[in-house]
Design goal:
Number of strands: 18
Radius of gyration: 24 Å
Largest sheet: 8 strands, mixed
Order of helices and strands: HHHHEEEEEHEHEEEEEHEEEHEEHEHEH
Structural class: alpha+beta
Helix content: 25-40%
Number of helices: 11
Length: 436
């Protein structure tokens, strides 16, 4: 069965799974469902084009141009160059009402693609001084394409919309390059949530659940994330006479081991999860020279602010105390990072009937807390928001063994697109009409 045939059958199957939907839906909901098949082919084409031409964070120039041209062609108010390459489109409905925002991210990752598809990325670029392959290994190409489709659907219904829809296409969700600012924080600083200010915001992320399955979680859905950098300063000496110096490599090794006890022995993980990971350690240039310093970098993931602050304190104390015990010193820096992706419980409850109507009641379920992070949380600090997950693992592939996001083998089943388009479009319409 071809991809487009599978897409059509998937959409019809989901619709048939909830026969009460057409009877209960108001005219706007019916219009959304009628228009989705008309944009699916465009969404697939947009996604494949963006996938074949991925761009790293703060470099999404081509992708932003595609988005801006589409929004302008629809007659929306369009602002470009927000947070470097971000695009914001405003659709003002024909009737008065609230303001709702929908967000998609546009950036790709420094990953060399290994998926065998005709539109696989062959792009290479420079990332933090290194030559890298570039791939949409997290699915942001799908988010962008689906939201473009939603914009086309809702614009065609403009006269009947009671309120305003704001489309936010964001760069640098994966983090700005070293020495740069970007992402949701910079989008907000440059006015993405103003003129008009949304009353609510929604977003989705593709994930290796079964195709078309939706997972949600009220409250803390994704972890906060903070990067840390520890520099251990010793005293350089000849490798043959280590007693003449202070070896920062040995001390850094002890610090790495000490940090492992924070999550495993010092935090009550039954109350709230926490992760401390050292991702890189660098020091020395020659086999017979003990260097003057060693640098290590890592990430911290937590779900509660109190735990987050406690982990920060423990990292500092662990590194500084171990270094001091050996006559060295340790400088610890922890960035501001991203807060917990916190789904407003009341808004989540209000959205649930919409998601169940779109995917079918048996295909929507409570998901676990996820220790990956999202700067969608920055928007949620300003307005109530809900961020949910949609499966893209095709039938015949075990989701438990499917390549995860950020893998060079990450694969997206395009048959899920109608579900994603409908989920975002209905979320906006149902919020504006206050149906639930």
């Amino acid at each position: 069965m071809t991809t487009l045939l599978r897409i059509a059958s998937m959409s019809l199957a989901a619709f048939a799974a909830v026969p009460s939907l057409s009877a209960q839906a108001n005219r706007l909901d019916a219009d959304v469902d009628r228009r989705v098949p008309q944009v699916v082919e465009k969404v697939v084409a947009w996604r494949r084009d963006i996938h074949a031409h991925p761009e790293l964070s703060n470099r999404e120039t081509r992708t932003a141009d595609i988005v801006a041209q589409q929004l302008r062609a629809l007659g929306l108010e369009v602002r470009t160059g927000v947070a470097h390459t971000g695009v914001v489109g405003v659709l003002r409905g024909g009737k008065p009402g609230p303001v709702v925002a929908l967000r998609a991210d546009m950036d790709a990752l420094p990953v060399t693609e290994e998926v065998d598809v005709p539109f696989a990325s062959k792009v290479r670029a420079t990332y933090n001084g290194q030559d890298v392959g570039v791939m949409h290994a997290c699915g942001h190409d799908t988010h962008t394409a689906m939201l473009m489709g939603v914009a086309e659907i809702l614009t065609s219904m403009r006269d009947d919309l009671p309120g305003t829809v704001k489309f936010i296409f964001q760069p640098a969700e994966e983090g700005a390059p070293a020495g740069e600012q970007g992402g949701a924080a910079l989008m907000i600083a440059e006015g993405a949530l103003e003129n008009p200010k949304p009353d609510a915001i929604f977003g989705l992320h593709v994930f290796p659940y079964p195709t078309g399955e939706i997972r949600y979680r009220p409250g803390g859905a994704m972890a906060s994330s903070n990067s840390f950098r520890i520099v251990v300063h010793g005293r350089q000496t000849h490798g043959a006479i280590p007693w003449a110096g202070i070896d920062p490599i040995v001390i850094a090794s002890q610090v790495v081991l000490g940090l492992q006890t924070i999550a495993s022995r010092q935090i009550d993980l039954t109350a709230a999860p926490a992760v401390v990971t050292v991702g890189a350690i660098n020091g020395g240039v020659r086999n017979n020279i003990i260097p003057d310093s060693v640098v290590m970098i890592g990430t911290i993931r937590t779900f509660e602010d109190a735990v987050r602050r406690d982990v920060f304190d423990r990292i500092r104390r662990t590194a500084e105390s171990i270094a001091q015990s050996a006559g060295a010193s340790a400088l610890v820096a922890i960035d501001s990072g991203n807060p917990v992706t916190y789904n407003d419980p009341a808004l989540t409850e209000r959205l649930l009937p919409t998601l169940r109507a779109v995917a079918g009641p048996t295909h929507v379920s409570l998901g676990p807390p996820i220790t990956t992070a999202e700067d969608f949380s920055r928007y949620q600090e300003r307005v109530p928001g809900v961020f949910f997950f949609m499966g893209i693992t095709p039938p015949g592939t075990d989701p438990r063994t499917a390549a995860p996001n950020h893998s060079p083998r990450f694969f997206v089943d395009e048959a899920a697109f109608p579900i994603g388009i409908r989920a975002l479009a209905h979320a906006a319409v149902d919020y504006l009409t206050a149906r639930h």
